[in-house]
Amino acid sequence: MINYIWFFLLFFGICFGIFTGKGEVISTGIIDSAQSTTNLIIGLVGIMCFWCGIMKVAEKSGFTEILAKLLRPILRRLFKIAGKDDKALGAIVMNLTANMLGLSNAATPFGIKSMEEMDRLNDEKGVASNDMALFLVMNASCIQLVPSTIISIRASAGSKNPAAIIIPAILSTTIAAIVGIIICKIVEKYF
Fold first, then answer.
1. Sign of the dihedral defined by the CA atoms of residues 129, 134, 135, 139, in that order
2. Distance between CA atoms of 134 and 177, rounded to whole angstroms?
């Protein structure tokens, strides 16, 4: 449905521009936006490669394992059923660790594995358990220690200090994660 809406908006806008004699402005706008989009994407690719390399170094140096060990005791308390199962908890820890380090592409397979493991432990198949709902909240509002995507976008857009977002990102994502967990635990008691 959204495709039809976008098509209608673009088609109507272009037709309106042509009928009002602004065809040249439309052509120039399309070419300029395509060029700026291409420049943005090329800039993002280079910076994303850099951050992925940094994250790989963190993984190889054992930093992700240290972070996982710190998270394990906290997650055992938060997840009632999955916290008792090593496979499920391991997948949850790896997903959240990858998200914390800004590796959302690497976190996706662990997120899928986490849900599969929690579904294995779930008594009601096809219905999300409280642990699954909590995991989705934590995954969506995960604390970002290194917001590499935002840093990359800011750098490719010409920011003078693209990493200035790190402290605000840590603060805002920490608050979001804490509020999400609290609300999830409150709602869990009623449903």
1. positive
2. 10
First to last CA, the chain: 33
Give, in order, the Cα–Cα distances in Å from 121 to each of 39, 79, 127, 190.
47, 12, 12, 21
Per-residue pLDDT of the chain (191 residues; tens, 9 = 90+): 889 999 999 888 888 888 888 888 888 888 888 888 888 778 777 766 776 777 678 778 887 778 777 888 888 899 988 888 888 888 898 888 888 877 777 778 889 989 999 999 998 888 889 999 999 999 988 888 878 778 878 887 788 998 899 999 999 999 999 999 999 999 988 87
Cα 40 from Cα 181, distance rounded (Å) = 36
Say which DSSP state 127 is in.
S
Give me the phi and psi of 101, to 5 degrees please. -90, 5
Beta-carbon count within 10 A of 135 CB: 26
Is the whole model's pTM more than 0.70, yes or no?
no
Written as six digits, the tokens of 2 are 């959204």
> What is the DSSP track for 34-76?
HHHHHHHHHHHHHHHHHHHHHHHHHHHHTHHHHHHHHHHHHHH
- C-alpha to C-alpha distance for 146 and 149, rounded to whole angstroms: 9
